[in-house]
Specification:
150 residues; Cytidine Deaminase, domain 2; five-stranded mixed β-sheet; homodimer; alpha/beta
């Protein structure tokens, strides 16, 4: 299971890197069912001028309509915000694997309280991509907009 | 204020009717700032094959990137699901006006606990559009898919 988690997180991280290369926020996500990728996505807020296009949301949008999510796992490079946490609960995704919660804490206890199995990898590469992004001029402001911090 | 609420809810309801006319779920939303419409939208799950395109999400997407939502009000014909509730919290929308919570309860206490001012209009026209939709063959299944009920 650990190897699989690292493999899928590497895909989510590649999505994050792609997002940064395109001038966006470096946060990626992958939806997996039975060890197979259903969809991968990344934050497209800047690229599409779309405030709801967080990495997890872009991934779920790309997955299209699914009859059920009860047998899926969502991988995300960064701890989910309340929009994405609410979506995980609404869709009934039973397990979420999070790359890191240092650059953004999210609300992991809330997810766990509501019955989601959360694995926090505390992955150095996931932290590093956000750090590199935030170190560039102007990006801290973009990040605060992304998480709706005044 | 009550007149304004009814006026904006009528716009949200018109969005819901448009959604049903297009073969989709009849749920509409309007984002308002200082008495002016920022954006209006409706559920596009069926039309775009997009599981995250609930009415509120479509409206917020159409509003585009906003510096802040602290001075906005979100109108929605139907009580928000957890995805949309999480989004309301994440974006810091301080007030939500809900047409009805009979066809879908949502979690209004959760929104209130987290500091959102919620007005429930218990509007007969909002109830009616959902009732008409659900009465059509096959639509109950579509609705269960929309709210991710197995």
């Amino acid at each position: 299971m650990k190897d699989a988690d690292q493999r899928f997180m590497a895909l989510a991280l590649a999505e994050a890197e792609q997002g940064m290369a395109d001038g966006g926020l470096p946060i990626g996500a992958v939806l997996v069912r039975n060890g197979e990728v259903v969809a991968a996505g990344h934050n497209q807020r800047v690229q599409h001028g779309d405030p709801i296009a967080h990495g997890e949301m872009d991934c779920l949008r790309k997955a299209g309509r699914q009859r059920s999510y009860r047998d899926t796992v969502l991988y995300t490079t960064l701890s989910p915000c309340m929009m994405c946490s609410g979506t995980i609960l609404q869709f009934g995704i039973p397990r979420v694997v999070i790359g890191e919660a240092e650059n953004f804490e999210g609300d992991i206890p809330f997810l766990r309280e509501r019955g989601v199995e959360v694995t926090l990898m505390d992955d150095e590469d996931c932290k590093d991509v956000m750090r590199r992004f935030l170190a560039r001029p102007g990006n801290l402001e973009l990040w605060h907009e992304d998480i709706a911090e005044d």
